[in-house]
Amino acid sequence: MNITSDTKISTLINANPASIEAIASINKHFEKLRNPILRKILASRITIADASKIGGCTIDDFFKKLLPLGFVVSSYPVQATNDTLPAAARPDFMQKINTDNIITLDVRDHLASGKDPFQKIIQTLASMPSESILLLINTFEPIPLINILKKKGVEYYTEAQDSNTIYAYLKNTGNKTLKGLRDTEPPAARSVDFAKTVEKYKSKMKEIDVRSLEMPLPMITILHELEVLPEGYALFVNHKKIPQFLLPELKEKNFCWLIDDAGEGDIKLLIFR
User: Fold this and answer.
1) What is the CA 138 to chain-centroid distance, rounded?
2) CB burial class (10 A; 0-12, 13-18, 19+) of residue 200?
């Protein structure tokens, strides 16, 4: 089978199931592929190029593991490292970057302790001087956050420092305020009785538990379940925290949601139309 950097991970697995172990052996980021449920969710959504970026490795790392399995590389691009990446590939604000204007926010401890760094990130961005750039240090590329901030005029640039460290540079160059992102739950969601609505959907409801999943898998799992949710059904989610990255996505997809905060580490989320 011919493959390129745009080949989906699911295509590789369907062609040769041995691809699972081959990819999982690249680094610990890909060990999730051994889990059938997570594999079903992730593999169909990402290409080799996407996976290399997420895992902090190169496309060549994938090709070296896949070639012995009989795959044939149709095109063999050279993926630049952080040291060789040409300046022209970076956005304008990165070419003119002044280290004195960088404000660093490391959220790895927040994630490790199960805390959601969303509010801290937004508050830092909203309070920074216009010439400043936020350097966000994370364990994965914060795509959900970036998707939210892009709509607010925030420019970004990401690069992998190693397999477990991602630098995301964020600059608020737009005219839209970020303050509205501090409270993304719509007023309607506060005034409706959660238990009453759950009872309404009792016979048409699917329940999932994402409390044991590492970020960003909870959000990916929920969005996947919503894609296949039958019309007229609700999705009941057991979560360990309010998924701030998810709420704007739900609003954009015209979903309604209710949140029941039962205590630390026990959040109930009902999503419906």
Assistant:
1) 11
2) middle
pLDDT per residue over 186-239, tens digit each?
Answer: 434 443 578 888 989 999 999 999 988 877 778 888 988 898 899 999 999 999
Average pLDDT, the chain: 80
Non-local CB neighbours of 90 within 8 Å, separated by 6+ positions? 157
Mean pLDDT of 72-86: 54
- DSSP for 5-29? TT-BHHHHHHH-TTHHHHHHTT-GG
Q: What is the pLDDT of residue 66?
A: 93
Angle at 142 between CA 140 and CA 147, to 5 degrees: 155
Residue type, 72: V
Q: What total of structural domains would you count in the chain?
A: 3
- Size of the chain in residues: 273
Q: What is the sign, positive or negative, of the torsion defined by CA atoms of 22, 23, 27, 31?
A: negative
Look up the pTM and report it.
Answer: 0.52
**Is 252:187 a contact under the CB 8 Å cutoff?**
no
- Of 178, 203, 220, the one marking the end of a domain is 178
Structure tokens at 217: 């898998």
Q: Which two tokens stand for residue 138?
A: 């994370």
Our measurement of the distance from residue 23's CA atom to the centroid of its chain's CA atoms, rounded to an integer in Å, reads 20
Domain that holds residue 33: 2-73
Q: For residues 141 and 193, state if they share a domain.
A: no
